Amino acid sequence: MSLISDIVTSDLYTQQLKKLERVSQILSLENDVIESLSQPERVIQVKVNLKGNDGRVKTFIGWRSQHNSALGPYKGGVRFSPNVTQTEVMALSMMMTWKNSLLGLPYGGGKGGIRVDPKSLHRDELERLSRGYVKAIYNYIGSDIDIPAPDLNTDPQIMAWFLDEYIKVSGKVDFATFTGKPVEIGGLSVREYSTGLGLATITKVATEKILDGIEGKRIIIQGFGNVGYYAAKFLTEMGGKVIGVSDSKGGIITENGIDPEKVLELKKNGEPISSYEGKKVTNEQLLTWDCDILIPAAVENVINKTNASQVKAKIIVEGANGPLTADADDILRRNNVTVIPDILANSGGVVGSYVEWANNKMGDIVEDEEAKKLIITRMEKAFNNMYQEHEKKFSEYDFRTSAMAIAIERVVRASKLRGLM
Ligand SMILES: NC(=O)C1=CN([C@@H]2O[C@H](COP(=O)(O)OP(=O)(O)OC[C@H]3O[C@@H](n4cnc5c(N)ncnc54)[C@H](O)[C@@H]3O)[C@@H](O)[C@H]2O)C=CC1
Ligand SMILES: O=C(O)CCC(=O)C(=O)O
Questions:
Q1: Ligand 1: which of 152, 153, 199 to mutate, judged by most atoms within 8 Å of the beta carbon?
Q2: How many domains does the chain divide into?
Q3: What span, in angstroms and rounded, lies between the C-alpha atoms of 421 and 302?
Q4: Which positions bind substrate (predicted)?
């Protein structure tokens, strides 16, 4: 059976369906179960008309995809991107279902997006767009229904506008409806860096199992935003050596090691990463540069059948959602490159969100240090659990298969118990 033929898909959705199909066959899931898991429960499309500062109306399209709620309310970020499509958001919401399930969180999967280049808007236009999006979807979200958070090009300030608009239009003063908020309004300072912290933690634990530890390992990171910067920072603190970084404009390689704080400073001053001392490289060159650990932490499908065979890293840790295609998985496995899958590697973000959400619900009883420990412990536990299952049941496949199998089985069990399947 092919799930792909009759759906007009973005490439990310095609890739996710291929990955789902592959694991479902290994788990011997029935066709109707696979069919059901392949479709979101609901996709909301909205139009936001924005009166621009030049007096003209600009029209933007956005979505919220609610993939599966068998384990709890939908949970996942909202991205602002000029390239985002409905099917991309659908794919990302499916990945959130697996991620939340794998981590044992009480959530289903959701994801949202607005098709916009945020750099093309003034700050007050961005605020009106953010508020317009929430005005359009507020009936479908809530702290027990669907809980948005930051993703690509969205940040705590945008969450603050989302929350304020939600309170105004719904009349519900429910701060747990959004996570990744500023600390002044119920945010958890740890959430800002929890994806990078989780990524570094998983990388460290994985290198202890697969290589001989993180100390001195040569690391390359694509993308220097929230995930990439904090991953670089924590991995450096843990003893790793970041030798390459990039952003959308290109990157730099320096065998002496890169200081993440100095790169951040450059970016804050509006200077390109390539002004850092070292060899200037394109993103294509960066991905296939010699290193121990490669962390694609920017956008999807960057490692695919055209470049996978040239990857020289021993381990790839997926910081972004979906940076590897299904074809790349096959090639890398044949070449003995270990892949730590996105649903495990970048799940520190949603674990941080979970602590923030629980704190908002319970009245702020978890302190920062405790939250940080909780995230690290959850991540280590999730890796060890995946590793054990892999050794026991799925050792002939890759870690993605093992992680997805654990996640999908949990969702299917919950769905059957609830009578949803
Ligand atoms: N922010 C979070 O908590 C989480 C983010 N993720 C995923 O991580 C990835 C990055 O997200 P953030 O760091 O939050 O985004 P961000 O907007 O903070 O940073 C994105 C970075 O990627 C770079 N970039 C964009 N397009 C690129 C391209 N074509 N080639 C190379 N670099 C490019 C940008 O210049 C920027 O440095 C996304 O896939 C996102 O879905 C996953 C889990 C949680
Ligand atoms: O923090 C969250 O709720 C979700 C973050 C996210 O969108 C992701 O993990 O891809």
A1: 152
A2: 2
A3: 35
A4: 75, 99, 353
ipTM, two decimals: 0.99
- Which ligand has its closest atom nearest to the C-alpha of 159? 2
Neighbour tally for 418: CB within 10 Å? 11
| Residuewise pLDDT in 10s, the chain (421 residues) | 444 433 344 589 998 999 999 999 999 999 999 999 999 999 999 999 999 999 999 999 999 999 999 999 999 999 999 999 999 999 999 999 999 999 999 999 999 999 999 999 999 999 999 999 999 999 999 999 999 999 999 999 999 999 999 999 999 999 999 999 999 999 999 999 999 999 999 999 999 999 999 999 999 999 999 999 999 999 999 999 999 999 999 999 999 999 999 999 999 999 999 999 999 999 999 999 999 999 999 999 999 999 999 999 999 999 999 999 999 999 999 999 999 999 999 999 999 999 999 999 999 788 889 999 999 999 999 999 999 999 999 999 999 999 999 999 999 999 999 999 8
| Residue 115 counted as domain residue | yes
Amino acid letter, residue 390: H
Compute, in angstroms, the gap from residue 138 CA to the centroid of ligand 2: 19
Same domain, 209 and 135: no
Catalytic residue among 18, 19, 58, 111: 111
Domain of residue 88, residue span: 40-174
Token pair of 205, please? Answer: 């634990």
In short, whether 283's Cβ falls inside 6 Å of ligand 1 is yes
CATH number of the structural domain spanning residue 77: 3.40.50.10860
